Each structure stands twice: as C-alpha cells, then as structure tokens.
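Example 447.
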Amino acid sequence: MRLTSLFKKLLRWELALFLVSGCLTLVQASDKNFFVMDGHQSTIFVEGPVARAQNVVFYVTCWVTLVIFVIVGGVMGWVTLKFKARSEADEHAEPPAQSHGNPLVEIGLIAASVLALVVIAIPTVKEIWYTHDVPGADSRAKLDEMVKGGNAYEVTAIGYQWWFKFEYPTVQIAGAGTLATANELVIPTGVPVRVNLRTDDVIHSFWVPKLAGKVDMIPNRANFLWMQADQPGYYWGQCAEYCGDSHAVMRFRVIALGPKEFNEWLDGQTQGARTVSAPIASASAVARPQFAALRNFKPNEAGITATYEVNPIKAWRDKQNPEQNENAALIAEGRKLFQTKTCVVCHTVRGHEGVGTRAPDLTHFGSRTTLAGGLLENNTEQLHRWIRDPGAVKPGNKMEFGYVDRAGKSAMAGYKKTTGFGHEWKKNITLTVEEEHALVAYLQSLK
Ligand code: CUA
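Predicted structure in complex with dinuclear copper ion:
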C-alpha cells in the first residue's frame, strides 16, 4: 500500500515538472511574435474593412467559447476536488443512490447552448452579407469617376499552377487587349476593390490575410470577393487550396497605393516594354562585366533579403526606377537570347518580341519586387537562381517541363523535353553563365 501512495506522489511531481518545463520550452522556442501574432499574414492585425469584419466574427466566437470553457472546466474541477476519495473507506464506499437527472438543469443547458449559438450567429450572418455585397458592384468606371461614385474598382485574378495573373478589365490596350500583370496586384487605397476569381487549371484559393479572407478559384465558376486597404501598404498573399506540387510556394503580393500614385502606376503599365538604347560605341567596345562564379543555393533556402522584408513598400517604389549602371550591350544580347531560347513562346513582353500568354506577362517585370510566384525577391542573385534551374525552386513548373498535350506529346518544350508519355526527359534549354547574365540584365531592364 505504501509503495502505491509513494508512486502516486512521484507521478504528481513528475507531472508538475513536465508542465513547467513544457511552458519554459514554449517561451524559449518562440520569439515575441508568437505572442503578438503580427506577421506578414496575420489575421489578427488586419488593415481593411473586410478583414476587420471577419476578425469580429472570430473574436465573438472566441469569447463565447472561452466563457463555455471556463464554466465547464470550472465545474469539472470543482466536482473532481469536492468528491474525490480521501481515504481507504471512500475508495470502497457504495455509490450514492442513482436518479434520472434534473429537468431544470437539462432545459437550462439547452437554453444556454441556443443562446450561445445565437450570439455567434448574429455577427456571422451580418458579416456574411457585408462581405458578399460588393459596394457599387459591376461598375467599370475609371478610377477617378469611381471614387466620386463610391463604386468598386474591378480586377480579375486568375490562378495558374503555380502563379497568379492579374487583369485590369477597365484598362484596354490597343492591339494587346486587357492589361495583365503577374504575382503582384496593385490596387488603389480607400476604395472597395472587386476581385473576380478565375482559374486556368485546378482549384486555387485567393487569400490576403490582412485584407480579406480566402475564396476559392474554381474551374467554370465565377467566384469573386471584395477587399479594401485603408492605407498605402504591401500585403502578403498566398494560394490557400492544395493545387499540386508547388502549392505551398504559390504566393502573391498586394500593393495598395494612394489614388494619384495608383493612376501613375497604371499609366506606366499601359506603355510597352522599355528599350535601353544601344551605346554609340560598338558592342565590343563596352566593357564586359566579369562573370564571377555564381553560388549554389540549398533546396528551400529563403529567397528574400532583410532590407526588402523590413520595408517592402520602399523596396517596391525603388523598383520602379531603372537600375544604375545598365549595360545596353548586355541587355540587347539578353533580348536576343529571350527569343532564341524560346522564352517568347510563353511570355509576353509588349512592344518587344514576346507574345505568349501561357506564362506571366513580363512587360514590366523589372518593376516587381518578387518573382517565381512571389517566392523569391526580384534581385540579381535570385533571378539567376530562378532562370538557372526553375525546377529546383518550384518543382513541377511549366518552365521546367513545358506543356504536354493530351496525347502525352510535348506540345511546348521547357528546359526539358520528352518525345512522349513515359519517355525520358531530355535537356532542351541550357544557359551558359554569360547567357544567364545577359538574360538577367534584359529582364531587369523591363521597368
Ligand atoms: Cu494554387 Cu494552391
């Protein structure tokens, strides 16, 4: 008997130690952000009316369930302590007389549960209508007219495996159709933005946690959502529905700009690609840069710098200006390679040679802060990493494998090609270090 009670005592100490050490580990392992919960994709620290409405529903639900937890847990704790066996005799005592229960308590509990659900249902239903009804929906007015009329600005987001295309239906470019960009959605602040949600292939989901909760992009279904940014800012977005190999790295950004800056950006986007004029001296006279050996990256190595992460909106604004010390000859060489290496078949560069629509529009690629579906920062180092081996960054992507038609034949080859389903994949595009540098210079010049 004494051995049993000793064992019980030890167990109690062990349990207490376990809990304390567990808490300490948790505190140590997490930085203060764990407790503050303010990250790039925080749903707690929100910056727009739609996300705020969804936040209200979250908090109401949390508080109601917290009250239930405290009451139920408290009663359970109290009963456990009050009626626990305190002696040998208690442990072997006859159970007390059993009864059917207490109608008052049972009806009371049902009523309390209904009340709790009603308290949750009222804001839920209210916010469902609020987030569903786009203010001034279906308006295709220009931004300035729209601001006057209190209407929503309309954009279309299209999911692809694994990147996002963004279209501006109100902006039509002669000979090129609807203005399209990729990975970075630029919106005006202070006005509701209607986002039409479409997909090119499988189901994706559009989610910018700080601005609005996720809505799926479903084949043959015209989904939409609306969101609004209070202030100019830079917001992290993410595909939130499993969509294949590289779902986890299918990201995007939303850049909110004041109306004036937004209109300026829009004007810039309607222009064709920037051409860096060739130097008067012949290409051979221009000093060739020394092509240093490029370092290799570890799989899953982070692709963004601290400078960008700390102040991304500044980084974005800086990106709108041409790089310093541009090498026109190298850029011209890159532009040629962009054709000869068949990049033009999938990518559009308006005003230059690119015409493809199956891959991101690169007309103003150099003015974006990110590349590869928002995964990597758009800087020289990461751009090299991406064009050298896109498959290592985003497994299964079409830049690596091209498009395979229904018969299993390679309809459009990428870095690798095959002669048919189940056949070997052979190298198709290879880039020397020099070629890489030329392509990087060209792409970066596309402001
Ligand atoms: Cu697209 Cu997950």
